[in-house]
Design brief:
By secondary structure, the protein is mainly alpha-helical. Helices cover about 45% and strands about 5% of the residues. The strands form 5 sheets. A two-stranded antiparallel ribbon has the order 1-5.
């Protein structure tokens, strides 16, 4: 099976994007491949392509720094509330434009886009490409997907941002004004439409560490749903597109899902718990896992390692044979009681124990110390190479999300009855009763007394009931995977969700969150200072 776990061997091929680095004012950018050396053969073109993948696999990108950005969605947050100008400030909505982690994430997004731009420009000039070499067409699709993924992150995190699809030939090339996010969405969709046409469907021998057609179509579904949803504008208002635009987006989601149905390869792992053990054990499951960000370091050093299973996961004693896990993230324990007792996802998602030095599980009675459980040091079969770093991949897209996204789109286009069987595919795997076609057991499943604080969605008609069902199912199924916060944002209810959480000395995000500000991150102060096309204007409220 071909993977990119050993991606670190090509790291030296490329350096970070100058427009967002300390070398911004250099006359000659340092972010470049030598095209004469790396675009002369299929093999070398692939090496250049892996340089784009490598951007994702950084400790200060998806390896760790992305973790707090995804939090404070009502389900989990970071441990501790003191300001730190890094992870805690991000997680608790105390972030400022000088936050060093936000600056690093911004840099890597643009680094990857610039690498993709350079790669695509040079690939398309190769004679082998012009001759129609199949491998090069696939590499083009992969690069377009990666550029789309990074651009999508920019829009979700910062809204309207500087964006272009040409490589930065000089320092001044990076000094450009904001691009309206809808125009960026259009380019993302263009890239993913190209990708899906030029990438093969996965099969049993495929690796989820390399992009396939299913990944491109799944990301396209996610992009369409976000394009149809609420977002914070530069004037501080939350708005969504006209209904005609929204309906077109929903119809496009359904079209993509139909292609999954026609192909028929992708599906759910039979065991929800085994799915997450597979991620920890580095077992590739291309049927459900559509795309994983790959981490691997031969010696456990920070280069191309991640902290999945250590910084997020149950606490594990440093003297345990499994290795240390710091458990920086804690869950909102109320969610434990929202699951039905028979739901197998509950005790996988929420871990109520820690591991002592003798490898014994010790129950945690203090609910505020329960942790996310999808990644666990004890599930990683290999001996630790580093106290903090692991080779555990981050799952970016999986088929359960595809099912729930399709259900949402069907519901929003007046086809609510067709959404129910897709929701039930996820519920059956979880071991809980199916939602009845008549919705007769809807209140039993999604509107019990314990769920009363979550009355954010009008369920007076069938479509509203399905919306509420999806609110819960996406929370039960996809928690801690980086999608929940942005679901709530596109639905326009993040503020309401946070305000429903009882005040606590261990959780302050609900008090710190400000509508019209914290839906977006601040543009890094250094970028505002270096790029005069911003006109000194940061995002609303910063």
């Amino acid at each position: 099976m071909k993977t990119i776990s050993k991606i670190s061997i090509i790291t030296m091929l490329v350096i970070s994007m100058v427009a967002c680095s300390d070398d911004f004012l250099q006359e000659k950018p340092s972010s470049y491949y030598d095209a004469n050396n790396y675009f002369t053969s299929v093999e070398k073109a692939e090496m250049a392509l892996l340089g784009i993948y490598d951007v994702l696999a950084k400790i200060d990108h998806y390896g760790q720094y992305e973790m707090p950005v995804q939090t404070s969605d009502g389900q989990y947050s970071i441990r501790g509330t003191a300001t730190d100008n890094t992870r805690r400030d991000i997680s608790h909505y105390m972030v400022t434009p000088s936050n060093v982690w936000v600056e690093a994430i911004w840099k890597w997004k643009y680094t990857g886009i610039d690498r993709a731009n350079y790669f695509l420009e040079n690939l398309r000039q190769m004679e082998l490409y012009k001759e129609g070499r199949e491998e090069l067409k696939r590499y083009e699709g992969e690069a377009c997907f990666l550029r789309a993924l990074l651009a999508f992150d920019l829009v979700r995190y910062w809204g309207d941002v500087p964006f272009k699809t040409t490589y930065s030939q000089s320092a001044t090339d990076g000094i450009i004004p904001r691009t309206d996010r809808m125009a960026i969405y259009d380019q993302i969709i263009t890239d993913l439409n190209l990708a899906k046409q030029q990438l093969p469907w996965a099969q049993s021998s495929s690796s989820s560490e390399r992009i396939t057609q299913g990944a491109a179509r799944a990301l396209l579904m996610r992009v369409y749903l976000h394009k149809a949803g609420y977002s914070l504008k530069m004037d501080g208002t939350l708005t969504k597109p006209d209904e005609s635009v929204r309906q077109n987006c929903f119809s496009s989601v359904i079209e993509e899902f139909n292609q999954f149905q026609t192909n028929g390869f992708h599906g759910l792992n039979a065991s929800y718990e085994q799915l997450w053990k597979n991620y920890c054990e580095k077992v590739i499951d291309p049927q459900e896992s559509l795309f994983e960000i790959s981490f691997f370091s031969p010696d456990g050093s920070n280069e191309d390692s991640g902290n999945w299973g250590t910084y997020i996961g149950p606490e594990t004693d440093a003297n345990s044979s499994y290795g240390r896990a710091n458990a920086f993230f804690v869950v909102n324990s109320e969610w434990y009681d929202y699951y039905l007792p028979a739901d197998v996802r509950r005790d996988v998602n929420i871990c109520r124990y820690k591991v002592d030095k003798n490898d014994n599980r010790v129950n945690i009675t203090n609910k505020t110390q329960w942790t996310p459980g999808k990644w666990r040091r004890e599930w990683i079969k290999t001996a630790p190479k580093n106290p903090n770093n692991t080779d555990v991949n981050y799952v970016y897209l999986r088929y359960a999300d595809v099912l729930l996204m399709a259900a949402e789109a069907l519901n929003e286009t007046g086809r609510s009855s067709e959404a129910v069987p897709l929701i039930n595919q996820v519920r059956v795997r979880a071991g809980v009763p199916e939602l009845e076609a008549s919705l007769g057991n809807y209140e039993t499943l999604y509107k019990t007394a314990r769920m009363a604080p979550h009355n954010f969605i009008d369920d007076s008609d069938q479509a509203g009931k399905i919306r509420r069902a999806l609110y819960w199912e996406r929370g039960f199924e996809l928690c801690y995977e980086g999608v929940r916060k942005y679901d709530l944002l596109r639905w326009g209810i993040l503020d309401q969700v946070l305000k429903s959480i009882p005040k606590s000395t261990n959780y302050i995000a609900n008090e710190k969150f400000m509508t019209g500000k914290h839906e977006l991150l601040p543009v890094p102060l250094r970028e505002i200072e270096l790029n005069n096309a911003f006109g000194g204007q940061n995002n609303p409220g910063y």
